Amino acid sequence: MSERAIVVVSAGLSTPSSTRMLADRLAAATARTTPVQARTVELREHAKDIANHFVTGFPGPELEEVLDAVRRADGLIAVTPIFQASYSGLFKSFFDVLDQDALAGKPVVIGATGGSARHSLALEHAMRPMFAYLHALVAPTSVYAASEDWATGGGSALPERIDRAADEFAALLEQRPATQATDPFEDPVPFEQLLAQRQG
After folding, report:
1. Which residues contact 106 (CB under 8 A, 6 or more apart)?
2. What are phi and psi of 123, to 5 degrees?
3. What 8-state DSSP symbol labels residue 43?
4. Which stretches make up the NADPH-dependent FMN reductase-like domain (predicted)?
């Protein structure tokens, strides 16, 4: 099994962040199951560029590089804090500026953090439909971590759920051909051919 490139997107706003912690644990559990090269993206570091993208229609160089990494990745781990019973605005904004087809057919595992377990359904009524709309292949198991999960060292259910989600994500990665990075300017159509097509 060849090594797969994955991007880990964390929408945590603080340092340290329980959202980042959950993202890291999902990435580590995936790496124990299948060979991956993981790159972690902290969205708070790109918040200004994301906002500017909405205004100007163009990403800054750093944001463009992140968006390109997501496009080229074989899979995605996406974790957000839950605010007002849904994903954070920063998390949604990032996926709003991503090309609509960038996640088509791409394996994704979703996770979220919050102060209370009663917000766990946000994964199913908010996050999963968003990624389904983007035509991603979302792992069946999603992972929610409430404050009490960390207070008890993760309890007994959280580690098991992380491992199950990671196993499903790894299986999706293994079933999908590795992404081949392509450069649209690598093999240009000769000018004579373009001219002949126009004349024809």
Report:
1. 73, 74, 75, 76, 136, 137, 176
2. -60, -40
3. G
4. 6-150
As a whole number of angstroms, the longest Cα–Cα distance in the chain is: 73
Contact 60, 47 (CB under 8 A): no
Q: How many Å apart are CA 55 and CA 172, to the nearest integer? A: 36
pLDDT digits (tens, 9 = 90+) for 39-72: 999 999 999 999 999 999 898 999 999 999 999 9
Please name the residue that has the structure tokens 């199951």: 33
The pLDDT, as a whole number, for residue 37 is: 95
**Which CA distances in Å does 183 have to 167, 179, 188?**
32, 13, 10
Tell which residue, 73, 9, 66, has the closest CA to residue 37: 73
The DSSP secondary-structure symbol of 83 reads E
Query: Which amino acid would we find at residue 110?
Result: I
As a whole number of angstroms, the distance between CA 41 and CA 91 comes to 11
Q: pLDDT tens across 102-152, in order?
A: 999 999 999 999 988 878 889 999 999 999 999 999 999 999 999 888 776
**How far is Cα 119 from Cα 109, in angstroms, rounded to an integer?**
18
Superfamily (CATH H level) for 4-199: Flavodoxin domain (3.40.50.360)
**What ranges do the domains of the chain cover?**
4-199
Cα–Cα distance measured from residue 38 to residue 31, given in angstroms and rounded to the nearest whole number: 9
Distance CA 20, CA 14 (A): 9
